[in-house]
Amino acid sequence: MSKLATLQTHLQQQNFDAAFITHPDNVFYFTGFRSNPHERLLGVFVPANGQSFLICPQMEVPDAKEHFSGNIIGHVDTENAWDKLVASFTVPVAKLAIEKSHMTVERLEFLESRITGATFSSIDETITEMRLLKTPEELVELRKAAALADFAIEVGCKAIAEGRTEMEILSEVETAVKAEGADGMSFSTMVLSGLKTASPHGTPGNRKIQKGDFVLFDLGVIVNGYCSDITRTVAFGEPSEDQRKIYETVKKAEETAVALVRPGVLAKDLDKAARDVIEDAGYGEYFTHRLGHGLGISVHEFPSIHGENEMALREGMVFTIEPGIYHPEVTGVRIEDDVVVTADGVEVLTKFTKDLIVL
């Protein structure tokens, strides 16, 4: 059954007349068409019964036709796209499912003003559940993205040299990855050095690499619409005893959590396993975020792997495992892998070594 047909079955079961899907990632999921429409209207209208249609900026219609075989409604900047949308409805709409997590108040008011008396309900949970378990075809793309992420870390390590800046290394990494065929980066690439590594979401800049630095790479690569996300931390010059202890603690925490992955294990237990290792080593206060997050078309998607999530892991789920220690006076270290839950355990998609590299 196609993804659109699966969604239509749900709409029928819930007595919806139709759904209007607007998040670009979900439009891609259902149609294969990837677009960044900016402020313009993009969406796929899915009736409970009948043919779906895509609405997008007129200038993107030729590209959309390469991916979506259904009817495509284009709109130009001088038109009111919302009027054109409603005029194109293929069924009467009294109960419409929308993505409440993506629909702005302004856009909802546009719809309310044009569909008199209609009610609007969330379709978010249904789509989240559909995207949660990856198909074999999706896993093929995720493996490709992970392999390019491994390559990116290798390029980054080779680019490290005394006096080179974080931004110089970052630029070399992104250029190499795109030359290998990546669609782009999953998010803003992070190359941090020295004590800047102690900021979990630090900003790369013109700091020059110095002997004794740890250098942290956090990056992701998009391949055919699917994302990877990897973090590795390496040493430039012989690390201090404190730096090495922090590194080995994070490595143990990460490997402990990865080894626990299998169907039926609770998400919170992964977080606890990694956190216990870090707390037992005396660094608990320096691990300041959740263990990981879902991964797929979006670089951050469901589920959230944190200490309160009692969701049981299921075969086909893909997520990150990324413990870290961020000591502002010593160094920061994070190690992150992308994993998929298999029938009897785990497959680690990112394969770059986790042994401490000393350059």
UniProtKB/TrEMBL annotation:
PROSITE patterns: PROLINE_PEPTIDASE
Chain ranges of the Creatinase N-terminal domain: 4-132
Keyword terms: Hydrolase, Manganese, Metal-binding
Keyword Manganese part of the UniProt annotation: yes
Keyword Ribonucleoprotein: no
Pfam family of the protein (one): Peptidase_M24
Domain of life of the organism encoding this protein: Bacteria
Molecular function (Gene Ontology), one example: metalloexopeptidase activity
Cofactor(s) needed: Mn(2+)
Coiled coil: none
Start and end residues of each Peptidase M24 domain: 142-343
Family label: Belongs to the peptidase M24B family.
Protein name: Peptidase M24 family protein
Organism: Tetzosporium hominis
